[in-house]
């Protein structure tokens, strides 16, 4: 089994084409490309997603993603869960898998902790509700202004972008079962001490603080994350990925 990893795709899967990822031609269904959140393949929650998802399913390898802050959680919750390599997944397609939060998977003889999610940092101008009687007026005002950054609840933003208390408990339970020692940590955002380095828009929150707890207390070899739209080795253990596809095993 070969394992690769890449960062945010936001529904654009061009990087997996053979001309950009020639290694993919030699892979099989047993090989996995791990995608580190803001997958965006389940976005509309209807047939408009099918073309891209069917194209991914026809690739020779398996694509497995953690969730980001730009996912349609209303649509994701409709997929049933199943076990895969020791952890819970949602099979979007037989070989397009959502790696659920707080799981520990065993792939190629290594263990992987997954904890998707992040706080959106492109909502400075607010989150509009479609149920608000003033929605149309507020939307028009924001659209007339330059450089506004806002989202619409249940249309382009979901509160489930951050884990629930049950998901934090699941992560702690599975970390306890593994003695707080895994080979890899896969997340969308970074622990607080790393997240605060990137920009003024990134503030500490419940998730980054939980990830900081993992960073401070767990044993691991590598931590891979996306979210910050760059390709960078923070240090020898913490790797930020965006457009690159890198082989890790």
Automatic annotation (TrEMBL):
Annotated coiled-coil segments of the chain: none
A molecular-function term among this protein's GO annotations: hydrolase activity
InterPro entries for the chain: Calcineurin-like_PHP, Metallo-depent_PP-like
One matching Pfam family: Metallophos
Residues in Calcineurin-like phosphoesterase domain copies: 1-230
TM spans (from-to): none
Gene3D superfamilies with a match to the protein in the record: 3.60.21.10
Family matches, as SUPFAM superfamilies: Metallo-dependent phosphatases
Superkingdom of source: Bacteria
Protein name, UniProt field: Metallophosphoesterase
């Amino acid at each position: 089994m070969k394992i690769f990893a890449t960062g945010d795709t936001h529904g654009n899967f061009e990087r997996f084409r053979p001309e950009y990822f020639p290694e993919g031609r030699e892979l099989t269904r047993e090989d996995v490309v791990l995608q580190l959140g803001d997958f965006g393949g389940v976005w509309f929650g209807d047939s408009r997603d099918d073309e891209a998802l069917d194209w991914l399913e026809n690739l020779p390898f398996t694509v497995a993603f953690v969730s980001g802050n730009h996912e349609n959680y209303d649509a994701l919750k409709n997929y049933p869960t199943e076990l895969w390599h020791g952890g819970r997944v949602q099979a979007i397609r037989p070989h397009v898998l959502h790696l659920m939060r707080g799981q520990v998977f065993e792939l190629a003889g290594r263990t992987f902790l997954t904890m998707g999610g992040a706080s959106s940092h492109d909502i400075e101008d607010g989150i509009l509700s479609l149920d608000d009687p003033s929605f149309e007026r507020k939307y028009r005002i924001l659209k007339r202004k330059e450089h506004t950054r806002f989202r619409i609840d249940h249309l382009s933003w979901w509160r489930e972008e951050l884990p629930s208390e049950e998901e934090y408990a699941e992560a702690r339970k599975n970390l306890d079962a593994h003695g707080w020692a895994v080979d890899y940590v896969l997340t969308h955002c970074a622990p607080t001490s790393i997240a605060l380095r990137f920009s003024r828009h990134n503030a500490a929150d419940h998730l980054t603080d939980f990830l900081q707890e993992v960073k401070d207390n767990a044993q691991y070899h590598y931590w891979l994350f996306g979210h910050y739209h760059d390709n960078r080795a923070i240090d020898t253990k913490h790797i930020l990925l965006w457009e690159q596809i890198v082989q890790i095993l």
